[in-house]
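Fold Annotation — chain and its backbone
Encoding — discrete vocabulary of local shapes
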Amino acid sequence: MEEPIQLEGLKVTLDRLTHFHDPETLPPDAPHAFIYHLSIHNHSQYTVTFHARKWVVQPKDGPSQVIEGEKITGKTPTIKPGQVFSYNSYHAVACHAQARGSFHGVDENKRLIFVTIPEFDLVIPETSDN
């Protein structure tokens, strides 16, 4: 089976991260949501299509949570050279954590590709009602 390659020229940036605390609407075991805004930049020479994502959320205290699935927020974005795909989603946590991951897909030559999502911290502000 072909191993995916990290295609040179693909990059993911964290554009914004917002903390949201609402114990009435979020699960009691994860009352803190971190809304992240990411962009996938295609500075390669190939058109790419992403079909899946993988996240690892590592709480400060406790085992890591692996989240894998098809699509990116319900989409399979195709990004041509020079284009950017931006979206937002969230992770809900109970304590400070770190998030990292990758997006997986194919290029126009049907090669399996991936791009890493840079690690970012999910730090619950001290002013929250924890």
Observations:
- The chain has a mean pLDDT of 93.
- The first strand starts at residue 5 and ends at 6.
